[in-house]
Design brief:
Layout lengths: L1 H18 L4 E5 L4 E5 L4 E9 L2 E10 L7 E10 L10 H18 L2 E11 L2 E10 L3 E10 L2 E10 L6 H8 L2 E2 L2
Antiparallel strand pairs: 1-2, 2-10, 3-4, 4-5, 5-9, 6-7, 7-8, 8-9
Length: 177
């Protein structure tokens, strides 16, 4: 019986390694981060008009190969004008985070499933999940450091929204410096 149990474990370990993928690191010293993903993240830039003026928005993202359980992996970085988030302005930071969560649910015609405060890799973050009418799930994390906002997101079908790769991506984010 013991031999059968060990053989079964070895079979499943070898079977799962066939499908496991080596993840690659995307790193930016300019934006002070590193993160792991199934493939190298592609960088894009755009400008967004806001109440505080035009903001530069940089995203690093990918639409993975079809065998991946997730549709999109993404990191969005927004640099606000210097001094926007004074270290003592906790209320402004909380209001900004609340606004991002509210907007993500509104823009995606979605339902907010949960939100919570987490502490990971030395950073205080807010995490939330929304489900939208198209049967998609988006799990997000947001942190504000200095005058920079980092938003991490993974989009998947609701039926695949609990796969391990979502947290593998989100947990791999490390703020440098």
């Amino acid at each position: 019986m013991k031999t059968y149990f060990i053989a079964t474990i070895l079979f499943f370990l070898s079977f799962s390694s066939i499908f496991s993928q080596d993840w690659v690191e995307t790193r930016s010293d300019t934006f002070s981060f590193k993160i792991m993903a199934p493939e190298l993240l592609i960088k894009k830039k755009k400008e967004a008009m806001t109440d505080v003026g035009n903001l530069n928005v940089v995203s690093f993202g990918l639409t993975p190969k079809s065998e991946n359980p997730n549709r999109i992996y993404q990191l969005i970085i927004i640099d606000y004008p210097e001094g926007t988030f004074h270290p003592d302005s906790i209320d402004l930071k909380e209001e900004t985070i609340d606004q991002f969560i509210f907007q993500s649910a509104q823009e995606e015609h979605s339902e907010l499933i949960y939100e919570e405060e987490i502490f990971t890799n030395g950073m205080q973050m807010r995490q939330w999940r929304i489900h939208n009418n198209e049967e998609l799930s988006i799990k997000s994390r947001l942190a504000i450091t200095g005058d920079r906002v980092y938003i991490l997101q993974v989009m998947s079908d609701i039926t695949k929204s609990l796969n391990e790769d979502i947290d593998k991506f989100l947990d791999s984010f490390v703020k440098l410096n």
